[in-house]
Amino acid sequence: MSLSERECIAIHQARALLQESGVWSLEEDLSCLVDRFIERADKKRALEEFMLAVHERCNRIPLGHIVGTVDFDDLPLVVGSGVFIPRSHSRVIHKWIESSAAMPSGAKVLDLCAGSGAIGLAIARRRPDLEVTCVEFDPIAVQYLKRNIDRLSCKGVQANHLCADIGDEQAFAPFEKQIGLIVANPPYVPQAQELLPEWGEHHPQASVYSGTDGLEMIRQIIALADRLLVRDGWLVMEHGEGQAEAVRELFRRDHLTDIETVIDKDESDASGSSVITIGRKPQ
Fold first, then answer.
1. Are 69 and 77 in contact (CB under 8 A)?
2. Cβ atoms within 10 A of the Cβ of 37, count?
3. Are 110 and 166 in contact (CB under 8 A)?
4. Start and end of every Methyltransferase small domain (predicted)?
5. Distance between CA atoms of 273 and 136, rounded to whole angstroms?
6. CA dihedral 76, 30, 81, 45 (to 10 degrees)
């Protein structure tokens, strides 16, 4: 194996870190990590694993579930079977935050239906002055969420996590009238709608479908936002392009103001449009 000076330095640092951490199989673990991330020692095995991965993708297993990671907004997130894979669509939320003067320093942010934590962690990276809490209920997704929060803390990205159901009033009691921004990419697909196999068959169904009209979870989040948002607090929600008017009407019924739907074609792809609706709680 021919390694560069930089790679040799990294391996030396890795050995020291692993030894300090107390792992019981230091050299075996280090060898495996070098083989996985720096240079494959067994080219035949690498080729076999490559073809297995290709066959899985041909069976429409999502790429993130095959390789175990996904890049989102310059963050390397761990994902796998049983958790929703974040899509570039959600970056429209971060564009809005950066273009808006609405979020004062120190504001509290909730990322609801957080999954692996992509949206909340990206906010925490872009705005370290905000206090971000990622909320998820599914036990598999929570494991990925906690792992990503711990994983990215070494890069200076700080966020909290909360394992709670959206309908659990007691779990959210400490946040009442405390939250400056709620963001969410909830499940919003109507139950009868057919999707590409990656989403309709190989993603956890609870992260994709939401009742007969796709708006069940959105209604619950809007009701929760009414309890949690401070005056002038914001609710930002992803949804389907065809649901825009229905979501705006739900925002209006809850007396939100400054309601706007944003469709970002730059972040859209073959799986759908990048769409958010924004509303503000009045003073």
1. yes
2. 11
3. no
4. 105-193
5. 24
6. 110
What tokens does 259 get? 């309601």
pLDDT of 168-184, one tens digit each? 989 999 999 999 999 99
Q: Are residues 279 and 251 in contact, defined by beta-carbon separation less than 8 angstroms?
A: yes
Q: What is the 3-state secondary structure (H, E, C) of the chain?
A: CCCCHHHHHHHHHHHHHHHHHCCCCHHHHHHHHHHHHCCCCCHHHHHHHHHHHHHHHHCCCCHHHHHCEEEECCEEEECCCCCCCCCHHHHHHHHHHHHCCCCCCCCEEEEECCCCCHHHHHHHHHCCCCEEEEEECCHHHHHHHHHHHHHHHCCCCCCEEEECCCCCHHHHHHHCCCEEEEEECCCCECCCCCCCHHHHCCCCHHHCECCCCCCHHHHHHHHHHHHHEEEEEEEEEECCHHHHHHHHHHHHHCCCEEEEEEEEEEEEECCEEEEEEEEECCC
**Count of C-beta atoms within a 10 Å radius of residue 143:** 16
CA angle 118, 76, 276 (to 5 degrees): 25
pLDDT surpasses 90 at 267: no
Q: Token digits for 13?
A: 């640092």
Q: Structure pTM? A: 0.91
Written as six digits, the tokens of 250 are 């739900």
Could you tell me the two tokens for 43? 């080219």
The answer to whether 141 touches 83, Cβ cutoff 8 Å, is: yes
Structure tokens at 41: 């020692």
